[in-house]
Amino acid sequence: MAQRDPLQDSTETITLLGNKVAALETDLRQKKEIILAQHSKLEAFFGTSIDAIVQMDFDGYITGWNLQAEKIFGWRAEEILEQTIELTIIPERYREGHRTGMQRYLASGDTTVLNTLIEIDALHRDGHEFPVELSISVIDSPDLQEFIAYIRDISKRKRAEAIIWNQANFDSLTNLPNRNLFMQRLEHEALSCDRSKLSLALLYVDLDRFKAVNDSLGHDMGDLLLVEVANRLKKSVREVDTVSRPSGDEFIIILGQIEDQLAVERICQQLLDTLSEPLNLDNKVVYPTASIGVSFYPDDANDIEILRRNADQAMYAAKASGRNRYQFFTSEIQERAQRKRQIITDLREAVNQSQFEVYYQPIVSLLDGSFTRAEALLRWHHPETGMVSPAVFIPIAEETGLIGEIGNWVFYQASQQVKNWRHQFNSDIQVSINTSPLQWIDESTGMNQWFTHLIEQGIDGTAISVEIAEGLLKDPSDHITNRLIEFRDADIQVAIDDFGTGYSSLSHLKQFDINYLKIDQGFVRNLDHEQNDLVLCEATIAMAHKLGIQVIAEGVESKSQDRILREIGCDFGQGYLYSRPMSAIDFTALIASKT
Ligand code: C2E
Ligand code: MG
Ligand code: MG
Fold this sequence. Notes:
This protein is α/β, with parallel strands linked by helices and 595 residues long. The chain has three domains: 6-157, 2-Layer Sandwich (Beta-Lactamase); 171-329, 2-Layer Sandwich (Alpha-Beta Plaits); 341-594, EAL domain (TIM Barrel). Helix 13 (403-425) runs parallel beside helix 15.
């Protein structure tokens, strides 16, 4: 056998290999041409797309980059082609995930990202990130293997969404969560309490006398105060707690994950202390104080609505016991609130069901013992609980706005009655009718119709006087001063009720046409053994007389009080000593017996 020449052998091998390489090259070139042809078709299509379209081969290199991609990422195509997608447009924190996701897909075809819409942050050439919406599809044919990402910049939409979300969830004045977000947080906190077996405390924080600041310093200052209060509240609680402003001057705080209630007491005290630090508003120093009501989840209620109501009731209890304090919810508060709710319900029925009656109490002349006037005092015969004191139901009627209707009823009833008495006894008797500030402040309560009513009914204005609280004249609006003038023009007299409890000065009253002062029974009660009260009554009477105002002493119960009042020149007395309030029938008999 002829020996093979090793040199010739290897030359043949090389030639063979060379041919194969050449064939492969041709193959590759053809493939590339196909790919390029396909690409240019795709590119023509992609170029006009409103989405950025980024193509990438299975090794992660960018193979296609349309015009829109240039716009949103800041890279031109020639700069980025042949770079990896990972190092250019994917923020660092996603790179690891991107790599493993891709490896998993290549190994098993397993994927969670293909053909779904994903919201994610992308990286701009200048290093800033921006939100995009992204969907990825894959071409996996023998000719072409690549991923295609359709990417849309959603910065604008996200910004708009953020604004809308903020508006829906935050109070624009203080930037605190509003009612909406507060409710979400509360529900969320309650759920986490269920899991942790801990409590949460709900704090209702209501500013004391906020309206006074608003009215006297103006709304701008009121707003400033609210913003400052919001900051002070936030400063006093932990970062994880929620301070919200659901409405007006009311703030609600959620203290989550509470282990002991003592800690909440400390926080409440801290809140009160921080709030009451002096605050300069328009060159006036104010000391904002608040009343805080607290209820605990789940101890006081495991229903969120009831929990809120409890905290609210506790807050009212804090206000009622003097303001600038906190009050934990108790079962007594609950009972009181229940009674109140019942009264509100029953009060709505009372007018229609004729459960009201006007009583009359004589007002006696201390000069000669005669009586020519009486105070109309409302009585409520409750069908189940019997007589309810006006001291109980009038404040509730004021709070609920029912006072308008009730006050009108009293006025029409009493004016009809005095008309009858004047007619029947040919006397100049006058009935004095109590009014609530709300009837003066809120025009819709119908006080303006009283004047025409009197004219229509032929009732003389002198037959009536109205009693007002001295607080009404502290800083009266034009509307109130005009109404006072209307009363004067209609010959209706005006008395200041419970004088001395509202700290207004007599000289202040000079500017109004006031006919009577009624000295509050609190001063009359101690007249015979409290030097201070005696001096006060004496001075009030002297000053009132100087201003042409007559004085009525309320709550006269004893002979010695009566004697002293005469001695110091008081004009009229009213009280159990002379007569208790009585029904119209009894009062008619009383007048008859005196004439
Ligand atoms: P007020 O206007 O100061 O009426 C005087 C109150 O003192 C009446 O209580 C009267 O019964 C009571 N009183 C009279 N003499 C004496 C006395 O010698 N000793 C004591 N301890 N009390 C005496 P009343 O009838 O319970 O009314 C309480 C308050 O309810 C009234 O105080 C008034 O502010 C309000 N009120 C009563 N009726 C009406 C009404 O029709 N409208 C409005 N807005 N308020 C009313
Ligand atoms: Mg009165
Ligand atoms: Mg009074």
